[in-house]
Design a protein that fits this description.
two-stranded antiparallel sheet, 5-stranded mixed β-sheet, 324 residues, single chain
């Protein structure tokens, strides 16, 4: 069996970019309250790359530099570090210090460094970097959140409306089930049911489902079983979420189904459902791709493409899956 490696890096990058305000509210609520979210935020990728070149990147790290505005009208730069590897990184505090001081020296901005530790060592909790000699002393202290501290609060997290509650649960349970895929399957199903909770937008559901799919990898047999769980749960919930995209297309498909037969109506519904998800997520769907989907007749293939449309990160990735 091929080794399964969870893609924590991309999973965290995506949710950080899409839900930065929720990230701050969940992990650093006092700082969140001081930011004027009505003015939006800006991700400073060029400035971050400069800092990374100066200090190096961690083995399994996600770094984001964000410009926000405080409620007093002043600018604030927030540098977020997420360590996603299971092992500790001894040079982590030094890297935060180098990034922070480089950005201050280069851009004359006070930078707030925030750290999320996603490792499995409960005792590793670096909160500062200090260097000194002969009376000269440099010190940087930074707030730290340890994801392991949420392990005893899973039921509480499950009822939270903040998307990072689900992110934390998925992260922790992926690590906890590293050698137990049967248990991981059970947790993935459980988290999926929490995702169906009322009040969650379609876009947020799709984004969190993608996080779940990127980190909680399963062997082929259990993944097939998980897909069956999705289908059964959709049926019980009257296709309330994953097929929410289908409902609008279903109305059109049912009309065609009465004229062309139930099976043909279902096929057309599945085609339109996949295309509708793609158009909602990526705006413009190329005509060539639309035509390829409309040529498909296998209902099971179309249903699988619908799920792919929800989880892929780009149209290019979707087209590669379709070609494969």
């Amino acid at each position: 069996m091929r080794k399964l490696r969870s893609d924590f890096d991309n999973a965290w990058k995506e949710v950080l970019e899409r839900y930065f305000a929720s990230f701050m509210a969940f992990f650093f609520p006092s700082a969140h309250r001081e930011i004027d979210w009505s003015r939006g935020v800006e991700f400073l990728e060029k400035e971050l790359r400069q800092a990374v070149r100066s200090g190096g990147r961690g083995k399994r790290a996600v770094d984001k530099l964000v410009k926000a505005w405080r409620k007093d009208g002043k600018e604030a730069w927030v540098l977020v570090h997420v360590e996603v590897q299971s092992q500790v990184e001894p040079e982590f505090p030094q890297r935060i210090y180098i990034y922070n001081t480089f950005l201050f020296g280069r851009h004359k901005r006070c930078v707030v460094s925030l750290a999320i530790l996603g490792d499995t060592d409960a005792s590793w909790r670096p909160r500062s970097f200090e260097s000194g000699l002969w009376g000269c002393r440099a010190l940087l202290e930074f707030p730290v959140v340890k994801l392991l501290d949420y392990e005893s609060r899973l039921e509480e997290l499950a009822s939270s409306e903040n998307p990072f509650a689900i992110v934390v649960i998925a992260h922790l349970k992926t690590q906890a089930t590293h050698h137990d895929f049967e248990n991981r399957f059970q947790w993935k199903v459980r988290i999926l049911r929490w995702l169906y909770r009322e009040g969650r937008s379609e876009e947020e559901f799709a984004d969190l489902f993608r996080f779940l799919d990127l980190v909680m990898l399963l062997p082929a047999d259990l993944e097939a079983q998980f897909e069956k769980e999705i289908e059964q749960y959709e049926e019980v919930r009257k296709m309330e979420w994953l097929s929410n995209y289908e409902r609008r297309a279903m109305q059109r498909g049912m009309q065609r189904g009465m004229q062309q037969g139930i099976q043909q109506g279902a096929v057309q519904t599945a085609r339109e459902a996949a295309l509708e998800v793609l158009s909602l997520r990526f705006q413009a769907v190329p005509r060539s791709l639309s035509e390829r989907i409309h040529q498909l007749e296998d209902l099971s293939v179309l249903k699988e493409l619908h799920r792919k449309a929800i989880t892929v990160s780009s149209l290019h990735e979707f087209e590669e899956d379709l070609s494969g």
